[in-house]
């Protein structure tokens, strides 16, 4: 009986221990199964949650709207009626732009005046110092001369004094010796020191004159022949590419624009063919030749190659570049602006996204993006996020209303303030990241299109991505962003 009891007790203890090792799972057949915990939202994994959830639109400031800066383009005048004359732009040629206000354009030389003025600024203070030293020396010399003359007269008078005044003469003689010592020190010490200083000043002037002579020789060599530039800039210029188009600049190439009268002109590429032209290229990716993993200041100022010549004598082919957030912001805040985003995959297929309203705020707001009124074939990623995602995961990929972020300036919504969770650092470039993206035009460039997380630096979809067209893990061959002042077609 005792053996049966012990055996039964061992079985009970063993069953209890086995039950305790099941990690608290309930295997009772009659008990209801415990529902699985809801999957945590992972902004970097892009794992869809329940399709029953809907994304939440992101509140964003409205883009600049209203009446456009330009009226509808004039139609071609009927035969027999005078057409609108194009503005004539004088061409001086060489290094001088047609318009005096546009300044010097030739990048290879002919800047002798600038070099001379720069040297003049360095020489003028030295010459002024030399003049001061000469004046001081002259005053000292005059003082000593007058003093010696007076002493000579005084010595003559002293010689006339009678021998009875010997004591008085001795006193004056001592005083005269003191004065003589002063004069000797001035002649033996002060004068040589001043002369030495003057010699040093003269040596400096001689050195600077030699530099000027070298600069003149160098500039003479450069200007021996007419200036030749790798990218001749057309005479016609304007506030933007639309203004240039209306002035007759109908060829797609590099131009100079100046949105404001007091602003220094800068180079841009104008697309004067696509969808009626007038487009100013603000972003371009073609071949991965330019690194877009840049700092905040680089994206602020702009970087890359505007355009290059492929043998036609002018720069008709755009390069890879980012215009600069300051310039993009200025252009879009001058009035209603639309944006055209064109892209191409590695099979040659092309799609586009066009938004009739596009505004980028200034740096104090970290260049907040405001965009609206989509049309096109690529998919509305800016306003709707990635359609392959659901619920909050999709909301996390909306770009409208986001601030601009770079790897050294984290403004995204993925755990703000946590340096280990930065979209720009992981996704390869500066952009209006949320948590993180459905479009990543400034990401890392991958040849061939498809890539994997094992190829990515941080295991994330960091390529040139437009998810609503090609999904994640496909890097586009080419993508460009172009803006134009919005005006009604009719």
From TrEMBL:
GO CC, any one term: fibrinogen complex
Skewed-composition ranges (Polar residues): 73-82
Predominant location category: secreted
Classification via Pfam families: Fib_alpha, Fibrinogen_C
InterPro entries listed in its UniProt record: FIB_ANG-like, Fibrinogen-like_C, Fibrinogen_a/b/g_C_1, Fibrinogen_a/b/g_C_dom, Fibrinogen_a/b/g_coil_dom, Fibrinogen_CS
UniProt-listed Gene3D superfamilies: 1.20.5.50, Gamma Fibrinogen, chain A, domain 1 (3.90.215.10)
Keywords for the protein's UniProt record, in alphabetical order: Blood coagulation, Coiled coil, Disulfide bond, Glycoprotein, Hemostasis, Secreted, Signal
Bilayer-crossing regions: none
Keyword Hydrolase: no
PANTHER family the record matches: FIBRINOGEN ALPHA CHAIN, FIBRINOGEN C-TERMINAL DOMAIN-CONTAINING PROTEIN
Listed name of the protein: Fibrinogen beta chain
Organism: Pygocentrus nattereri (Red-bellied piranha)
Gene name of the record: FGB
